[in-house]
Amino acid sequence: MEEVLTNPKAGFYINRDVFGAEGDFITSPEVSQMFGEMVGVWAMCLWEQMGQPKRVNLVELGPGRGTLMADLLRGASKFKNFTESLHIHMVECSPALQELQHQSLKCMDEENTSEGVDKRSLSTLAGTPVSWHATLEQVPFGLPTIIIAHEFYDALPVHQFQRGSRGWCEKMIDVTEDSSFHFVLSPQPTPATLYLMKRCKWAVPKEVEKLNQIEVCPKAMDLTSTLAKRIGVDGGGALIIDYGLNGVVSDSLQAIRKHKFVNILDNPGSADLSAYVDFASIKHSAQEASDDVSVHGPITQSQFLGSLGINFRVEALLQNCTDEQAEALRTGYWRLVGDGEAPFWEGPEEQVPIGMGTRYMAMAIVNKKQGIPIPFQ
Ligand code: SAH
Fold first, then answer.
1. Fewer Cβ neighbours under 10 Å: the N or C end of the chain?
2. Any domain includes 35
3. Alpha-carbon distance 55 to 36, whole Å?
4. Which of 92, 100, 132, when mutated, tests ligand 1's pocket best, judged by the most ligand atoms within 8 Å of its CB?
């Protein structure tokens, strides 16, 4: 899964823009500017709770086109004390997407003054410095940090286990003589089995007993641990928004190409692979990694955006726009907070928008010094 998504030559994310109506799938920041603005409100509130530090790292994991961060900065640009404190760090493995993010943030590269010093970029949206990294570990330590991960965790590789006469066996992929792929079961325990055991310990026995398949995501558990340790030491917090479950995930790995589900093994690298995020395992990983952090949620995206005041924002934007923009704002608002099939849809049935309000969930991991983050009270 990791290879299919991020291989430097053939990975799905590496050489192209996969987002939006023309691409393979659409995400909340691409649906409406209000999404990034609301995440900005969340980040600003946390910064207040942190005591308005003069210097803060604002990190985004997997920023896609950079739309969320651009809307966040535009929305926050009037709050100078906040924006002047920020150093933005974009964690992105795809050079093509890094370039798109550079454009979205309207970055200007500073002249390199001395040899061996990294070239810095400045986003002209709010006058903030921006740096790019391939992994979270490369973001410098030592400053309080706000981390945003929107639809990042679902792209991390999962391992699937199946219950059989030999107990739990990992599902692996084999190549047949005609060079096509098919699933097989591992003859012996695999390294990921350790993560399965850990995951099952966190579950109540009833939760596991009823399942014949379990998915675990070791990368998600390790990333959460890294992130929680950093927040525990440096202060700040993380916001994770994604689709998933607040418990053990059974069998959710899916492939999407041009807005349609396709076979996972069909033409790898040409379709997005993603899996449900197991929020309960994120919570346990964070709590295990650091005594200095607290975990809040998950709550639904609709609760999250609603409590942050998205209804006031949509009303304000509707005061000053064309009829066409008003239509887009209302549709975007519904897609972000609505549930089920769009009631207003008049187009082809197979293209009916599905609301993201309850399918997506928000979770926060914060340094205990910060108290309970808004709106998780
Ligand atoms: N947050 C964006 C994009 C989500 S898609 C949005 O909501 O629109 C996932 C993003 O994570 C892409 O930018 C992809 O290139 C990046 N990504 C996926 N796996 C990664 C990894 N292992 N390391 C760094 N970035 C990764």
1. C
2. yes
3. 21
4. 92
| Ligand 1 proximity of 97 Cβ (cutoff 6 Å) | yes
Q: What is the pTM of this model?
A: 0.95
Q: CA angle 37-43-47, nearest 5°?
A: 140
Q: Please write the tens of the pLDDT for every residue from 101-160.
A: 999 999 998 776 555 555 579 999 999 999 999 999 999 999 999 999 999 999 999 999
Exposed (0-12), middle (13-18) or buried (19+): which is 368, by Cβ within 10 Å? Answer: middle
Ligand 1 atom 21: residue of nearest CA: 93
**Separation CA 253–CA 257 (nearest Å):** 14
For residue 346, report the distance from its CA to the centre of ligand 1, in Å.
Answer: 32
- 270 shares its domain with 191: no
Shared domain for 153 and 165, answered yes or no, is: no
Give the domain extent around 365: 1-158+217-370
Determine, yes or no, domain membership for 89. yes
Please indicate whether residue 13, judged by its CB atom, sits closer than 6 Å to ligand 1. yes
